[in-house]
Write a structure and sequence with these properties.
The protein is mainly α. It contains nine helices and six strands, in the order αββββββαααααααα. Strand 2 (about 30-35) and strand 3 form a beta hairpin. Keywords: Membrane, Transmembrane, Transmembrane helix.
Length: about 250
């Protein structure tokens, strides 16, 4: 049984997008994500798929416009300092990329829904060509916007070139433009301290609960030295959590 060329193209479009959306995280890493709204939310990584001591993470594939910022909590007692520039940069990057989030939604619909439908239902070369021109044009407009805002987005020219190649050579890769830009920024502040500054109380308490569960799981598979460090970190998190439960 042979697969038609049209079906192979559709599978390729979706497959390349899923492949490019996959990331590997260490056990103590998690995301802060931000959609079209004004609030940040936390997102811990599933521990179900372990690849070379890292965990496979695939974000919501229907929300390519969502910004992801990677954070990490430390086992050892972290430096109790919040680097204010981390908060400033996260908010600046989010605000700068907001116009592109709407553009990205349009590109997503055209690339993942409209173009495959045109191919599947054999709409004709003209319709496919027009959709491709629109997709490439929007991708290039997005890249030009990013180049202009390069300083605020904390991007090197090497990263800009990588993003440009994605836009030119593989439109499904370009769908992850906003994720790649936001994940490019690495916060220096300990993740628990950072989230205390930007999450609401409910979100922060939920994050602490999930990290405490992770620590319990880590203690089972750790040696005696690491267990002592984990227990110390656990006590610190419980102290942070207590005022939230009993304000």
């Amino acid at each position: 049984m042979s697969i038609s060329f049209d079906l192979l193209i559709i599978i390729g479009i979706v497959g390349f997008y899923i492949y490019d959306s996959a990331y590997l995280y260490f056990y103590n890493e998690f995301n802060i994500h931000k959609g079209l709204g004004s609030t940040f939310k936390s997102q811990l990584i599933s521990r179900q798929f372990n690849v070379f001591h890292k965990y496979l993470f695939i974000p919501n594939l229907f929300l390519s416009h969502q910004l992801l910022f990677k954070c990490a909590w430390k086992i050892e007692d972290p430096e109790p300092v919040v680097h204010t520039h981390d908060i400033v940069h996260l908010k600046n990057i989010s605000q700068t990329l907001k116009p592109l989030q709407w553009v990205n939604i349009l590109i997503f619909v055209l690339t993942i829904a409209v173009l495959p439908c045109l191919i599947a239902f054999k709409a004709g070369y003209l319709a496919v060509a027009i959709s491709l021109v629109v997709i490439y044009s929007l991708n290039l407009i997005s890249i030009l916007f990013v180049i202009v805002k390069r300083g605020k987005l904390q991007l090197s020219w090497l990263k800009i070139i990588q993003l440009l190649l994605d836009a030119l050579l593989c439109p499904p890769f370009a769908l992850n433009l906003l994720r790649k830009i936001s994940l490019n920024y690495l916060a220096k502040t300990d993740g628990i301290l950072l989230t205390a500054q930007i999450l609401n109380q409910q979100q922060y308490q939920q994050l602490l609960d999930e990290i405490l569960l992770d620590i319990q799981a880590l203690k089972i598979a750790s040696n005696e030295k690491n267990i002592a460090q984990l227990e110390l970190r656990e006590q610190q998190l419980l102290q942070l959590k207590a005022p939230l439960e009993h304000p």
